[in-house]
């Protein structure tokens, strides 16, 4: 059937499969696509078609597609499904993904799915969802590969042999040995397993495991995995009992997601917006930040308002006001970006304020001199007034020094006061450089007035 | 000695250890610090002190510190060392890090280090450094865990047992079986090894390995690791011979680094700037983009210049010109950020231009209406002129629609034409929204002139 329709788009073919409820044809159609291509195709469909498709596909394939989506989008896709379909797909997700997706859902939808799940699994999800997202508890998965102190090497080998999935399913975790209280007291290396006798007790070859606590934050986890070559680590509750297993790749992924969402926050985008979200939600979230920005803009503009007399006398200045504030804003934002990166790499700490400021002042001086000279020449030639060029050039040079040196330290200052530098650095810097830029241009112009008119 | 100096800072203690060339005390001092803290302490030192410290520490510890640094900084630290020290530290780095760091160095310094290295290792580094950074070849490491088709399970187990480092040293790679021509023809799973007889031939339990080619790009590699649970994959040359091994975590790290450097590029920062770089280099790199920006600013400002007459008649408008352009610039940048993210997640493709445009126009309409009304009220109350409020409000509303809809598609358009959206989206969008904003405010004001003066 599908072969005869070469001229149809993938979307159209998907619609035919859905209309005929032909799961096999749908699978054949999606097979050559990567997961992200498949996800994109799904987003091209209407919401009810998306649900029909995810319900029609085998649950494990739908689960893979949903794992590919950012959590907010994943929750949206799952919420739109009927509870039994949703639960079947949910069962196939890793426990950490389950918890993340449940965390993004309405309580009602979440409860409907948890009610359809196996009781133990549902309890695991509830437990994982309760931890903060960027901690070991929020990033770990619940399934551990555990043994008792009385078990032998042979038992581990039999568990490996009997397991349907390969070892990699455990994402590199080792067999952990728990004491009677459920506390991890040993870990056996693969080399140990491979070279020991089958009859050997695990306690003979086990070593003390390195553990992390459920509330260890992401940065500390990154340090632990940097220092140690392990692919996974056992995570323990405050009482020392095993809570789950944290994989190196979960930490890598969380660091990536945090960096990407910092990028969105800088533009005032809260949460991780994707275009499939409802229009009103997207619009409202963006507006919150923009309306706060209006207030900052009014403050900056009031500087211009105070100098309307000067401006009226030399109207050409109005041409250069936005240029000076925009150019110094750009210079300042470069310094902000370098500081944000050095903060995230751990190359500077909030305490290094003065050192950063000193380094940036020098860059600001050089770049201010160059840019100021350039714009002075432009203003002089364009408007035929040397003094106008001097005023604009001097203002840009000074304002570049201000913007660059303040831009470098603003993220550190915000971090120091417990604010999120990604959210507030940009608006704060822009307001300062706008005000300073308008003030410098207009007050210098007022001083030089006799030569300007 | 150190115990008596509790009031000294870490930096001062480091200086004492360096002065006394006391390697042991230095190690004790640095031991409680994380790698990123250690790196930060090193950056607080003068360049010659940094070199002294890295030469004084055991080479494997210095190597760990250098691995923690971004490649450009790592190259800078290594270049400053005497060639024998540099080579000793270099020997301890993974082959993929060696290649990355060599790639950032001057040819002369690179050759000096390669000349001190073991010939085979140096050849590996040269080979790895020749591949593009964000391909399988550029991300793989050279050390593979390989066996011949005639080898037995017992031999693999003996290799495990004899190896000084644990299995994790191989970052999760499996034993690969090569044919006589050096082509990977099989891979054995750990489960296979654990459950087979020692005398079994590897060919009995091996399966066909999934391989990637040296020139596979990062996005495709991410897809492969998304689809398959492997921790590592063999990388092959065009002729099918084994070139190296690619680990999942190398791909994760590369994706993170790309996302972070896209963030810097948006502010016109080429390469990955860190503050320890020479002042002139940092200044010059930032200026290149800023001076191009001046030209765009002049184009936008020329719109104001064309309306100087209107502006002179209603000078209050000058107060709102930067507000309108700045506010719509912010709205547009939000749309740019969402598109950049959806592009990097693979949720949109450059072809989805029209769909994205339609989605953004709606957000632009709502937000334009809200922001336009807000600013209209502000202008009316502030300047006591209802018509002025109407002009400014209408201009902002229209310009928000323009900014948001263009902001959403600019990254897709740039990508489609082969440009890097991270570099050009911002300046392009700002120029368009500035021009449109100035034009809307001033032309509407010109129309409404009788009611404004």
Kindly state the mean pLDDT of chain A as a whole number?
A: 88
Low-confidence stretches of chain A: none
CATH top level of the largest domain in chain A?
Mainly Alpha
Number of domains of chain A: 3
Strand order of the largest sheet of chain A: 1-2-3
The CATH architecture of the largest domain in chain A comes to Orthogonal Bundle
Structural class of chain A: mainly alpha
Question: How would you describe this structure to a colleague?
Answer:
The structure is a homodimer of 453-residue chains. Chain A has 453 residues and is mainly alpha-helical. Chain A has three domains: 129 residues, MgtE N-terminal fold, CATH 1.25.60; 121 residues, CBS-domain, CATH 3.10.580; 174 residues, Tetracycline Repressor, domain 2, CATH 1.10.357. In chain A, 67% of the residues lie in helices and 5% in strands. Chain A contains 23 helices and six strands. In chain A, strands 1-2-3 form a three-stranded mixed β-sheet. In chain A, a hairpin with a 5-residue loop joins strand 2 and strand 3. The longest helix of chain A is centred in the last third of the chain and has 31 residues. Chains A, B: This is Magnesium transporter MgtE. Chains A, B: Belongs to the SLC41A transporter family. Chains A, B: Keywords: CBS domain, Cell membrane, Magnesium, Membrane, Metal-binding, Transmembrane, Transmembrane helix, Transport. Chains A, B: It comes from Devosia rhodophyticola.
């Amino acid at each position: 059937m599908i072969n005869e329709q070469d001229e149809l788009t993938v979307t159209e073919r998907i619609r035919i499969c859905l209309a005929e409820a032909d799961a096999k044809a749908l699978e054949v159609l999606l097979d050559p696509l990567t997961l992200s291509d498949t996800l994109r195709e799904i987003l091209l469909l209407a919401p009810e078609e998306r649900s029909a498709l995810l319900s029609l596909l085998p649950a494990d394939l739908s689960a893979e597609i949903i794992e590919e989506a950012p959590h907010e989008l994943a929750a949206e896709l799952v919420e739109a499904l009927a509870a039994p379909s949703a639960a079947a797909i949910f069962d196939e997700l890793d426990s950490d993904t389950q918890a993340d997706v449940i965390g993004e859902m309405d309580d009602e939808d979440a409860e409907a799915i948890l009610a359809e799940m196996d009781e133990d699994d549902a309890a695991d999800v509830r437990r994982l969802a309760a931890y903060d997202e960027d901690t070991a508890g929020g990033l770990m998965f619940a399934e551990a590969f555990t043994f008792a102190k009385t078990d032998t090497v042979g038992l581990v080998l039999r568990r490996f042999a009997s397991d349907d999935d390969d070892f990699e399913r455990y994402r590199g975790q080792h067999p952990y040995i728990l004491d009677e209280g459920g506390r991890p007291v040993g870990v056996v290396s693969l080399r140990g397993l491979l070279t020991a006798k089958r009859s050997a007790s695990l306690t003979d070859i086990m070593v003390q495991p390195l553990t992390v606590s459920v509330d260890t934050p992401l940065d500390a986890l990154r340090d632990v995995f940097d220092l140690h070559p392990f692919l996974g680590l056992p995570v323990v509750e405050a009482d020392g009992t095993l809570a789950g297993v944290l994989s190196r790749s979960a930490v890598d992924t969380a660091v990536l997601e945090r960096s990407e969402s910092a990028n969105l926050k800088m533009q005032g985008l809260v949460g991780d917006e994707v275009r499939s979200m409802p229009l009103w939600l997207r619009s409202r979230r963006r507006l919150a930040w923009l309306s706060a920005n209006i207030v900052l803009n009014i403050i900056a503009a009031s500087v211009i308002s105070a100098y309307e007399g000067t401006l009226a006398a030399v109207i050409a200045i109005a041409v250069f006001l936005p240029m000076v504030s925009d150019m110094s804003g750009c210079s300042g934002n470069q310094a902000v970006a370098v500081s944000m990166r050095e903060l995230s790499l751990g190359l500077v700490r909030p305490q290094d304020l003065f050192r950063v400021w000193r380094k940036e002042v020098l860059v600001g001086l050089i770049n201010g001199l160059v840019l100021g000279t350039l714009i002075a020449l432009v203003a002089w030639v364009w408007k035929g007034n040397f003094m106008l060029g001097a005023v604009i050039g001097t203002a840009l040079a000074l304002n570049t020094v201000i913007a660059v040196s303040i831009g470098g330290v603003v993220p550190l200052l915000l971090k120091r006061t417990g604010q999120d530098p990604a959210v507030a650095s940009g608006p704060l810097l822009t307001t300062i450089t706008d005000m300073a830029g308008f003030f410098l241009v207009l007050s210098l112009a007022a001083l030089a007035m006799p030569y300007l008119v």
